[in-house]
Amino acid sequence: METTLFVTKEYLEKQFRSFNNTLVKPNDKKIKGWLSTLNGNVDVEGSIANTIAKKIAEVISGAPEDYDTLKEIADWISNHASNAEEMLAKIEANKEGILSENEKIDLVEGIINTLNGNEEVEGSIAKMLKDAITTSVDNIILCESEDEDIDFNNANWLKGETEPVVFTASDIVGDRATLTSYVVPEGVTRIDDSAFRGCSSLTSVDIPEGVTEIGNSAFEGCSNLESIALPSTLKKIGENAFRSCKSLTSIEIPEDVTDIGEAAFQNCPNLESVTLPSTLTEIENSAFRGCTSLTSIVIPEDVTEIGDNTFNSCTKLTSVTLPSTLTKIGNQAFYNCKTLESIDIPEGVTEIGDKAFWNCTSLTSIVIPEGVTNIGSYAFSDWSKVIFAEGSLFKKENGTIYNTETGVLVACYDKTITSIVIPEGVTEIGNSAFGSCNKLTSVTLPSTLKKIVNNAFTGCSSLTSINIPEGVTEIGNQAFRDWSVVTFAEGSPFKKENGIIWNPETGVLLGCYDKTITSIVIPEGVTEIGNQVFYGCDNLRSVTIPNTVTTIGSAFSNCPYLTSIDIPASVTEINYSAFNVSVWSKVTFAEGSPFKKENGIIWNTETGVLFRYYDRDTITSIVIPE
């Protein structure tokens, strides 16, 4: 196979510009490094670099040893190489004076002319290159080196590609605010980040062939941009590239584009038609979120994942074609697509994210293929319309849907049910599994159950009793709306005392079961007071926290009438919303606490983190402590 060497005057000029203010000697390793970027290692016999090095050495071998500046070396080369008269004249004219910047550039260009020269001139580097190439290789040689110290100065360009020509915001001619149309110049290969961002009067843009990338937020907020023709050379569309282009009605993305960036077309409410190329492999999160006029979309083959929120709130979307290559549908991918009536999920899909099809109220039915192993919480609004293919790991039984392999119960599909017996084999009740079952009054849990996740029964406002079997060792935050209806089997690790429920084995306080309580003493041994633990305890006036506690979540955020609360020195972590806004001024910290109140703020003296202000009513200025 023939290889390629791409060497031009421009490349040599670029190399010599980097050295024009640097002291170098005839045998300096930087020259060797430069030669190595042309072809391999100068020590490799027969390489172009080796051949040139020898011939340059012949030219400069008579130079005095104390010549160490580029100017002196150039002077010597000028007198011992061909076609150097013009360069020599420039050097001689400035020999005694300090060169200006332009004169330095002219000088370097002169040196390059001598080194690169005319391939017909005997003794020029161009002639040497030509001779070396034609005598030592089949055609031309590719520039490569493993020397980490060598600066390739854009390796792609050395391989024959052109350097990127970037169009930036500063290149726009005219007033951005009143700009209505624009023609991007020929030769541009990339439209830079935020190049046209906020040009709200812009209605049309001509992008030339040759542009391969549209940068992040390049046209974001061009609210009057009605249409845009993308060049066939385009390969990538960046994040937020056309976000909030509210007048855009259609877009045809050309072949060769492989990636549509995050939120690239988010909030384009008049976008009715989108054509995606067959080369597309990735649609990133929120790419078409809020495109409320989009009615149909065909996702090409090779796309493996629909990102989080990709089509969230595309409220007129009625038709979606998914590719056979798809494996994952992300969180809220089709959330609030209210007019979507049906969708075929490909056999290769294994995961459906949280709220993926939530509030898709027009769905009449949806078949889940047998390969799906994971379904997130609130994946569907109406689980009764979900059908599982034969061989699926998921089973519908007793009003519930659970995974027979993992034992995770993901949902209750009968929202009218008043009592339920959860099947044996279920080991975990998932997040918000019974979130909307407001008619449910009683639940029987299986002996196999080990874990109840956050918010599992939060929406069960009519629940009157539930007994937790002894095998359950973990209960999440706000698992129940009313902890007073919860009882624990003998042998359970959980304990009810002093108005609270906690786990003496883990030290985690889960909830308060007496909402009428006015004061509470949290038991010794509690190490963590979780999020929303005292939700609804409006009458709570005082709390005593033991010195075993290390972490306080958003536990007291809904307790507005606390009169005082002292935080022991053992507490090292406090949530920003641990207390109601009106209560922070009443919070005190024990001696030795890492937390400090001063100048209207609370901060952690060990971590340096300022996380709360407490004097919101009277403070007019603040000095943040050193």
Topology:
Blueprint (H helix, E strand, L loop, with lengths): L8 H9 L11 H10 L9 H13 L9 H11 L4 H10 L6 H16 L8 H12 L18 H4 L7 E2 L13 E3 L6 E2 L12 E3 L6 E2 L21 E2 L12 E3 L6 E2 L12 E3 L6 E2 L12 E3 L6 E2 L12 E3 L6 E2 L21 E2 L13 E3 L5 E2 L10 E3 L5 E4 L2 E4 L4 E5 L6 E3 L6 E2 L12 E3 L6 E2 L12 E4 L5 E2 L10 E3 L6 E3 L2 E4 L4 E5 L6 E3 L6 E2 L12 E3 L6 E2 L11 E4 L5 E2 L12 E3 L5 E4 L2 E4 L5 E4 L13
Parallel strand pairs: 1-3, 2-4, 3-5, 5-6, 6-8, 7-9, 8-10, 11-13, 12-14, 14-15, 15-17, 16-18, 21-23, 22-24, 23-25, 24-26, 25-27, 26-28, 31-33, 32-34, 33-35, 34-36, 35-37, 36-38
Antiparallel strand pairs: 19-20, 20-21, 29-30, 30-31, 39-40, 40-41
Helix pairs in contact: 1-6, 2-3, 3-7, 4-5, 5-6
Report on this model:
The chain is an alpha/beta fold. Among the domains are: 9-158, no CATH class; 393-493, Alpha-Beta Horseshoe (Leucine-rich repeat, LRR (right-handed beta-alpha superhelix)); 498-613, Leucine-rich repeat, LRR (right-handed beta-alpha superhelix) (Alpha-Beta Horseshoe). Helices cover 14% and strands 19% of the residues. The protein is built from eight helices and 41 strands. A six-stranded parallel beta sheet has the order 1-3-5-6-8-10, with no helix packed on it. Strands 19-20-21-23-25-27 form a six-stranded mixed beta sheet, with no helix packed on it. Helix 1 packs across helix 6 and helix 5 (85-94) runs antiparallel to helix 6. The two termini are 67 Å apart. Mean pLDDT is 79; it is low at 1-42, 67-71, 90-118 and 132-162.
